[in-house]
Specification:
The structure is a single chain. It is built from 13 helices and twelve strands. By secondary structure, it is an alpha/beta fold. It has two domains: 3-223, Rossmann fold (3-Layer(aba) Sandwich); 249-334, no CATH class. The strands form two sheets. It has an eight-stranded mixed beta sheet with strand order 6-7-8-3-9-10-12-11, with helices on both faces. Strands 2-1-4-5 form a four-stranded antiparallel beta sheet. Strand 11 and strand 12 (313-315) form a beta hairpin.
């Protein structure tokens, strides 16, 4: 596989009246051609901000990419001018934004909004752009594309709007697709259709995909590699089997324990007590220490670094060497 994207020590901060909010702090990951990387974690962990940083869409002020490097096919896109970056957005890297109702312009038809990117990046005529837009509407499985082409976003269902967003993201055949919660608020039938559509287009176009979600079921279905994010940092990174069958970070363990199990339908769901701390007031040591069942004093005092557990599998925890024993003791205590 050839390397498409490399994010190295990315830091994205927001400067607010309450202090510096470190939304993304020293995050690193890679993406290969034809591969799917899952970014998973609770709301407020830095997943969407990481994606917006790659697209260089962080509002300034108050936000700023304070450090790190983002390489797309060996070129540092943080060093590009705004005009050069406009050629990358949509053309080389496409993005499905989190909320299709607010991401689509309510005063333009769906067809107009797909055409805009095609005309800008592929230099097609108005008629050629219209034909391309209709092709994309068919590709994403929208019935009666000629009719939908002339309709406005408010006339479509949530699933249809999500498909319009996918058509917009893919109309220029990007090499990377960033899908930010592409199945949120959709019923399970439409969710399955959207995931199958993205996988199908990925196989046909050879794209690399970054799938951002809080749904571990989606991650298990579509991802090759997984980065578990918590409070601005990558807590654990590995391939999908390593994360699901051999988790090493207490946060990952907590997320997996919270998944409903068919054979234990009468038991109460396991939860992670507490909530994500505000980004202006993270703990001095491990960001998860305020909620961690296994925390010791060192966790409060010193920040752990990502350490390799096995080939390609890293986790940031001071108790990695004891985690299997601690996990067994914890599961026995709650059984």
């Amino acid at each position: 596989m050839s390397l498409l994207l490399e994010v190295k020590n990315l830091k994205t901060y927001f400067y607010t009246d309450d202090g510096v909010a470190k939304a993304v702090d020293d995050v690193s990951f890679t993406l290969d051609k034809g591969e799917t990387l899952g970014l998973v974690g609770e709301s407020g962990c830095g997943k969407s901000v990481s994606a917006l940083s790659i697209m260089r869409l962080i509002p300034n002020p108050p936000g700023k990419i304070a450090g790190g490097e983002i390489y797309f096919k060996g070129k540092n896109i943080l060093a590009l001018s705004e005009k050069e970056m406009q050629n990358v957005r949509g053309n080389d890297i496409g993005m499905i934004f989190q909320e299709p109702m607010t991401s689509l312009n309510p005063v333009f038809t769906c067809g107009n909004q797909i055409e805009e990117a095609v005309i800008l990046h592929q230099k097609l005529s108005k008629e050629e752009a219209k034909q391309k837009a209709l092709e994309m509407l068919k590709l994403v499985g929208i019935p009666a594309p000629e009719q939908r082409y002339n309709e406005y976003p408010h006339q479509l269902s949530g699933g249809m709007r999500q498909r319009i967003m996918i058509a917009m993201a893919l109309c220029c055949n990007p090499e990377i697709l960033i899908a930010d919660e592409p199945t949120t608020a959709l019923d399970v039938t439409v969710q399955a259709q959207i995931l199958e559509l993205i996988s199908k287009l990925q196989r046909e176009l050879g794209m690399g995909v970054i799938m951002i979600t809080h749904d571990l079921g989606v991650i298990a279905e579509v991802s090759n590699k997984v980065a578990v994010m918590y409070a601005s940092k990558v807590a654990e990174f590995g391939n999908v089997d390593q994360i699901f069958y051999n988790p090493k970070h207490p946060y990952t363990i907590g997320l997996l324990n919270s998944i409903p199990k068919l054979n234990k339908s009468k038991e109460r769901l396991s939860t992670i007590e507490g909530s994500v701390p505000p980004p202006t007031h993270y703990p001095k040591g491990c960001h998860f220490c305020t909620r961690c069942t296994f925390a010791i004093q060192k966790c409060w005092d010193e920040e752990p670094q990502l350490l390799e557990v096995e080939k390609g599998h890293t986790a940031a925890c001071w108790r990695i060497s004891e985690i299997d024993l601690l996990k067994a003791q914890y599961e026995k205590s709650v059984a």
